[in-house]
Each structure stands twice: as structure tokens, then as C-alpha cells.
């Protein structure tokens, strides 16, 4: 039921893809899974002139080396859910993926890469990836760049990705084993999108220092994330301090059709505290 | 005396997965009451595999390849004057066949007449029945321009290029404002925005309030919700130019009403309009007659002399709305929990009045009080206000759900004030079975029931006392458990004088020369499976298996005049009509069998496809049928040929002559149910989780208990959704915000626990088969139960104003004391 | 005229080639061009699941797929999902549908679940069908149908039959 004519391309190589994107200008769209883009197109909300389907660019996989886990931009939630690497090395991400709703008909299609490029504040992935300190590899005719989450998510439906760039993969540091971790998502009901997400995990450096990374997603236009270090195992008061710090950064509250002004502000701390308490071992 | 049986379809829940369900496990669903497929047997759906294998054809599957497609330009303003329509660009676009506006349409057809015309002194009132707006638009999303093209893509693209200039007028968007003397009148030619008013009084209300120990006042504010069937509306008009005849195929819950409305609007003979309703992907009232698009598709097909199809998109489907009612109640009680008086006044914002009868639902609300309770002094006043909103579409519950919700909130409010258990207060006020039949203050004549037994049964089924203990144990955990009860009295079998048609249903049965049995019947199925129930009734009479009966529905050329699908009438009315017709046929067959077996017809019995004489000699129905048609002088001797019969059923419990108090009784049956919900309220976020749900239900004799259970559970799910999640939200200018299933939140499988059902059977004394309506029941009681459960969980934070639905943001505002919802 | 797109793909085991309007969504192609109307369209936002079919062996909400993206792929619709017969029988015996509009998607979702997890419990079943909306049943009878299909499949696991 798409009303307007558009060009559909399935380039065979990345160089061909980025040339197509450069030529198409601002009305080019890269098809992730399609779970958001295609409804936008069929309802007339998006008038893309070029749909670039990266199906042959070999971006579907999950790869790992000693230092990182790399998630292809076209890896579906089903792929992530089935990944042993993610389950073992990034249990926080595995928890986020396990909580995605929509059923197999969506899990087999929708991609984390597509979600981060859309940057809907009310989404599952961005907050979790911000906590994980993910980097986003973008390619264009000018070459590649690797952008940290803090610079990638600029605001609601806004990232630093230019229209002529394509997301290749998400690179997640995984050198040190993930310690205690927790992910929670607040939503009104199963049909609802995420209203607030919270993510937190600990790692331990070789010198014994405890590192905590935590984030608050969906509460503000862009995810809020931070890193904290502790000489001893973080406890409840540390958790509280982390919550204070993240909440203090929630200067702008995100509001949408399902949660108007004030609601996220009223509940964000509760969700965050639950995650942090779980992280420090108090449930 | 009521008989109790447990839900038959609740088979073998998993221990690990659903611990709540396992205690109620009973007989497997395949076990039939008699094993022969007659009344009382849970026969699986006839033609079931056609459904599960994707072979069933819904309306949109029947659009001819040659069909044109319709897209609509809808008004972005709630009230405006049409200044100019520029469609030149659209007309020039690829594939576009026609672009027409309201003036042209009005020159070719009349407005659709109202399904329920106004009566004196308002008989001259015009509804907004034009298929396209003329001069003025009266509501946001009113169709303004029709664009017809070879493909839907082309039609939609062209519709986007139509430019309409509007002069925006002051809209009336608030019912309170609508009722002010200086408010603009939203319907041209009317003298006010009051659509209807009603006042129902019983006893001496003022005196009772003065003598009461305790008076509690509260409000119930219901926001808009909608039926949201999985299949949207679809209409296909197919004009046959050779014979000047129009066939409308589509999602029609009331084919004969639609035939009359379309024929009238198009100035045609009803005989030249055929309305066909194929398999329907859910109706729930939304597809009842009276959408202006029905008339528009008919007009366009006749005008263009080609098939024209309209398939509603989901966004437009969610424009259908209802239930926006604000109730103020007062309940007066004694210290022991006895209710002595009840007062309720409410305003319903019914939007614009169109050709459908959705606006009549609040009139039904008023008639249901005080539901199942023995309250001598009752005063109800209802005001229906018109505003510049989309006309209400009918919805399951049909106003009764609002009455039950308000009554149940009032009972709980009184219980809380008196510090009494809500179950106890209910028990103290329920009418005993010996008090029935009995007329409600509105005049409705309640048939039968055993409300106290239902409450007791529910408490056991639900584990009421155990849940109260769990509630105590959960205190201080941050998750407050709330327990809510909800009684529902569900007047069914509506027979409102003036409705088209009203108050009877008809079945025609015939046996073919080869012995196949067809039943053509005026009631239709929205997908509920009532054809299986009708087949069972007929099969039981004729001694045939249900799948041997072919039920024909939803084709005005084929079936007798009937209402279609509304007010749980398919089996309630259609069942006895089919039963009577089948008995007539059986009498004929018995005479024929007597001729063949040389025995008296009265001695013939029927089983397994045979007519059996007293000595065991038998002849097959096939042989009788063939004999009647090929050897009528011998085999058919003594019967009226052919092997056909047509019979109607009219209920005895409807009274259209006003009694001494001016009351009439427009509903024939009164199923009821009582529901219990346990919820966990997350005190830190306002999110509610439904933990457990149980209901006791009594619709008298059940033809197919498994299908009744399925209907009831579906209604419960809808009531839970309406209570907790489903809300049509709008901008200040009344543009729809909740326009897809990401924002209009339907219950999903993981939102609901197993629903535990018990059935009782108190046969109706007014119905030949002892039946009461089933299908609509359950929505009001579940809505009330979850709403009461949320209030119970809120405890001291529960306000006197109950807002429905209880969304997390509303509840959080209450929990944090940051203001009223 | 809109430029046509030549779409070659396999539908229910048959290789097909059609000149199509490139703006079609996959369910529109399947219904209107291939003539297989068992795939229903309920929302076009990926929320209801009535349009579910299989692409390359995996269930997909097809309204999220432009028809052109089916190029070279294997589509199986409800009309060609012969491996799901036991599930379809169970949906009848357990009253797992009323209007039937969502049933296509429910059957496919159940099939994928039982292929991957032949011992799925009720919680697994509820999660597996949570992407599919049903407005009629309240879901209990659907859960029962999947449970019965699981039991009836027994050792003849779906994992051994081609998707």
C-alpha cells in the first residue's frame, strides 16, 4: 500500500552501496529489518526516494574476538537471541533481546541496527547499547568511522549518521568478563512500547577496580549512560549514588502518546533503582 | 434450582506454565453432553479446518479483479464550512476514474435513513446521513471527497493531491458545553444538542437517602474505546447494468437493515439490492448497519457501472468509538451493608448522530440499574449530548457495561465506607432467585437467575478468601494486590420498537431430493460460530449429525428477513426459529416415513439419519427425500409439499404497550455473570498486572458450552482491556492520536492469565428452549472487576472519581499524590 | 505508467515470475497477484500478525516486507504450509479460533515454536503467540490448541519436517 514510487536497490558490495546513498541524497533509506520503515512508507509518513536493501552486504552475523563482540547491522533479534557469544559474553544484551516483544514474526525480521538508526527514544536497544559502551561503524564514500554511543545518539529520532552513511556494525567491548548485570523495561502492557529502560553491569579491571556502567533509556530524548569506578564491591549506597547521578542528567523528559509529561520523570528512578539494586545483589 | 458445571474447554493446563488453571481441570472438550451433537454438546466448529487452513473467504478476499478502488479524503477539522474543492490534479493522475464531492453525490442519492428513526416530537430531525459532506463538515474524519481509481495505490495517491479549502467553524467538543444554551447546534435544523434524555424513578429516593446511615458519592469517567475487530470494514459494490441490480458484498452485521438503508438512499427498490455478508473477521457491534461508506460504495458502483471496493485501513477503523460517559452516583446504605437507595445521573457524549444506532447505547445504560440488587429506591437520569465527534459505533456491551461498571463501583464505594467486605455487601443485597421474574425500574422484565449461588460459586472458584490472605501477605512489598468483584446483568435479545427490523427472527428449512438439509436464517455470524449451534439444534430434532446441516446466512436474496447479528440473538431468537422449522419438517418426514413403513406417524423416531418405526423397521431420510420428490403421490401423501418449512420466533418477554408507569420492556432475556479479578499494582510505576481472573456465568441452557465459554472469555478479555489499557486518545481538536495497535493497546496473550470459568444453568421461563443470550456477556462484569481491583489496590489513594481506563500514568499520579488523573 | 518490477521467487514450492508494481507490500503481492488470500491484512504496522507467512523457512509479519524484497526467496503461505496440519487440527478440536482472521498467524507462530521447542510449556506458548493479536478468544483456547498440537505431535517433531 505504498503510494509513491521509489527506487529499490540491493547492491552487491559495500562500495556500490555507499555510492548509491551518496547519489540519492537525503531521501535515501537503508532497510534494516523494515519493522518501522515499511509501515512509515505504507502509511505515507515517509517519502523515501531510494530504499537500499543491504541483504547482500553480509551484515547479518555476530562476530567476536578477544576484545569485542561485533553485531552486524542486519542481525535480527532472532539471531541475537540464538547467539551463544552474546549469551555468554554480553548477558545484559541477551536480557534486553529476550525482552523484545512482537513474536517470531518480528524477531526474525527486525534488527537492532535498524532500531538504533531510527533512534526512537521509546525503544529497547539504545539505552542498553549506551550502557555497553557500544561503538557504531558507519561507512560512506569518504570511508569509515567508528562513533561511540555518546556521540551517536543525538536526540529523539536523531543520530550522527548522515544520509549518505550506512551502519555496518555495532562494536561492543567485551574484553573483561561481565559481572553482575541487570536489565529492566517498563511498559504499560505487552502491546506498549518501552516507557523506561534501565541497564547496569559491573566488570572488574585487572587492578581490582570495580567498574559500573549504567544507563537510563527511553526516559529522555537520548539514552543517558555513565561509568563509575569503585575500589570495593559496589553496595547499595553506591547504587543510590549512581541513580542520583543519572537522574540528575534527565534534564529533558521524553513524552509520547503512551506516557505524557511527568510520567517518565515519576517512574524513572524506581526502574533504575531496581536495576542497580539487582546489580549489587539486593533484589 | 440452578445447576452448576465447570468450563468444559479448560483442558489440561500445564503445571509449570499456568498453575492457576490446573485446579479447575475437568472433562476434555471433546466429550459431548449426549454424544450426538444436539443441544448441550460442545461440537467443534463446522467447517473448522477451512478456517485454520486459510481457506475461508472474508469480504476483502472477494474483491473482483476488475474492481475499482475507493480512497477517501476526510475532514481534518471537527466543524468547518466547505469553501472549495480542487480535484483537478487528482483527476489527471494515473488510473483515476472519478473524483466526486458531496454536492455531486447529493444530486444522485438521498441521505441514508437512520436505522432507528426519531419519534415524535423529534420525528423531523435529520441525521448526518449523507455519504459525503455537503456544505459543512460535522466531525473530524467525515468523508468529504471520494476518489476512485483502478488500484488502491492510485486512489490513495490521488486522494492526497485533492485540496479542500475549509472555513473553520467553532466546534463543540465537550458535552458540557454542548448542553449550554448558547452552544452552537451541531446538527443542522435541530433546536438543541440534546439527542435524548431519560429519567427512571422507583420508590421514594429522597426519603430513603435521608433515612440512610451512610451516603457515598462518586463519579465514573469513561474514556472512549472501540471494538477493533481484526478484520477492518470492507464493502464491495457491484452494479449489474443489464438488470439494474446492485449487489453489496461486505462486512455487514445487519444485511437486511443495510439493504433497506441503501435502497432508500439510492431511491431503489429493495428487491433490486442484494446484500451479501460472507465470513466476518469479528464484528462486536462495529459492523452494524449505518456507516455512510456503505451508501457511498453503492452509489459509486451504480454511477460508474463497475465494481467498487472499499477496504478500511486500521487508522480509519479506530475512528469508531463509544463509551464516553460521565456518571455521578450516590448510594445510600445502612450500617449492615444494605443498600436502600441509589441515584445516578450521567451525560454521554455521543458525537454526531449518523445513520447507525450507536448513539442509542447510553439509553440502554439507563435501563439496567440497579442490575442484580434489591434496591427499592432508584433514580437514574441520562442525557445524551451531541458534539462534533465521529458518530458512535455500536460495541459489545451496548451501554450495559457502563451500567454494571457504575453499579459495581457504587457497591464497592459503600463497602469501603462501611469497612465491610465487598463480597458481603453484595451478598446482602442480591435479589434471591425467588424474587424473579421481576421488573427493573425501567420496566425490563428480568427472567430468572440465582445470583447468590453465583456469588458463592465464584468465591469458591476464584479462591476469594485465599486471595484476601495473599493480599495481606503482599503488603509492604511495593506491589499492592487488589481484588475486585463485578456483577453483570446483561439484557439481551433487544427488540426496540422502531428498529429495523425488530423483535423476531425467521428460519427456513428445506430438504433436497438427495436428503441434504439447508437452513436459511436471518441471523448472521460475526465469526462466533453460531452456525454450528444452529446446526446442532436442527440436527437434534432430525436425528442427524450437526455437520450434515448446511446453515445459510448473510445473503438477502437467500435468507428470510432478519436482524443479522446484534444483542446475542443468533441462538436466542434464531435457535428457536430453527427449532420450530425443523420440527415442522420432522412432522412431514414422520408422515412420509409412516407412509413407507405403514405405521402411524406419531410412532416414528429419528436417529442417525433414519426414521424408525415402533418395531425397529426404518427408512433413511435420504430415501424419504428422494421418494417425496420422485413418488410424491405415495411417499408424500398427506403433507404440504415440498419438504420445507419457514417459522419465526418472537419472544414472550417483550412488552411494547406502556404499563401504568409508562414503561416498556424491550429485552427478552437476562443472562448474568459475576467476575473476580486479582491484580498487582506496582506502587513505583503504576503498572497493573492481572494475576488471576475467574467468572461464574449463567445464560440458561447452552447449546454449545465450549462456544459459550469462548464467547465469554473473549468478552472478558475485552473488558479487561477496556478497564486497563484500551483508550482512544485525541488532540485538543479531536484528531485521533491512538491510531494503531502500538497506541491503542489491545490485550495480548502475555497480558492475560488463564480465565477460569464456571457455568450455571437457570433456564429462562420465557424461552421455549430455556435459553438466554450469550455472546455479549462478560464485558461489563470484567470491566467492573478489574476497575474495582485497581481501586482496591490503590487503597487510601483511590479517589472518589474513577477514571477508565486505569493507565499507569493515571495511577502514578494518584500514587504520588501529584494530582487528579 | 509506474515502472514494473520483475519479481522471481518461490511460492509454496513453485517458482513464479511476475511483473509487479514495485510499491506492493508482500501480502498484497501474495493476495492479489499470486491469488493466495489466506494471508490476511489487519494493521499494516506489524502489530497484529494476521499477515504472517514464512520466508526462507522463518515466520515473518509480511506487511513489514516490500514485495520486491522477496526476490529470490522462498515464500510459504498458509495454503502451502502442509507441515502444520496437526496444529490446524488442534485449533479446531480446541476451539482455538472464532472469527478466524488471526488464525493464519497463530498457526504459523505455533509452528515455529513447536519446531524449536517441542516441549514448550504454557508460558512458552503465550510468549510465542504474543506478537499475534486475537480479539475473539481471550487466548486461552489458542494456548490449549498449541498444547494439544504439542502433545499430538509427540515424537513426530516438526523439526524433522521441512518448513
Described by the principal axes of the CA atoms, the overall outline of chain A is globular
Largest sheet of chain A: 5 strands, antiparallel
The separation of the N and C termini of chain A measures: 49 Å
Number of helices of chain B: 22
Strand order of the largest sheet of chain A: 4-5-10-6-7
The major beta sheet of chain B can be summarized as: 7 strands, mixed
Topology:
The complex is a heterotrimer of chains A (283), B (821) and C (163).
Chain A: E1 7-9, H1 14-24, E2 28-30, H2 37-42, E3 50-52, E4 62-64, E5 68-72, H3 77-82, H4 84-89, H5 91-98, H6 104-107, H7 112-118, H8 125-131, E6 135-140, E7 143-148, H9 149-152, E8 153-155, E9 158-159, E10 166-173, E11 181-186, E12 196-204, E13 210-217, E14 224-230, H10 236-248, H11 263-279
Helix pairs in contact in A: 10-11
Chain B: E1 3-6, H1 19-22, H2 48-52, E2 68-74, E3 80-86, H3 88-91, E4 96-101, H4 102-108, E5 136-137, E6 143-149, H5 152-161, E7 163-168, H6 175-178, E8 194-202, H7 205-211, E9 214-222, E10 234-240, E11 245-250, H8 255-265, E12 273-276, H9 292-304, E13 308-311, H10 314-317, E14 325-333, E15 339-349, H11 361-368, E16 377-385, H12 400-418, H13 422-429, E17 438-439, E18 445-446, H14 451-462, H15 464-473, E19 479-489, E20 505-511, E21 517-521, H16 530-542, E22 549-552, H17 569-572, H18 574-597, E23 605-607, E24 610-612, E25 618-620, H19 621-630, E26 644-649, E27 672-682, E28 688-698, H20 705-724, E29 755-761, H21 779-794, E30 801-804, H22 808-815
Parallel strand pairs in B: 2-13, 9-30, 11-12, 15-16, 21-22, 28-29
Antiparallel strand pairs in B: 1-29, 2-6, 3-5, 3-7, 4-6, 8-16, 9-14, 10-11, 10-13, 14-15, 17-18, 19-27, 20-21, 20-26, 23-24, 24-25, 27-28
Chain C: E1 5-11, E2 14-20, H1 26-33, E3 52-55, E4 58-61, E5 74-76, H2 85-93, H3 103-116, H4 122-128, H5 140-153
Parallel strand pairs in C: 1-5
Antiparallel strand pairs in C: 1-2, 3-4, 3-5
Helix pairs in contact in C: 2-5
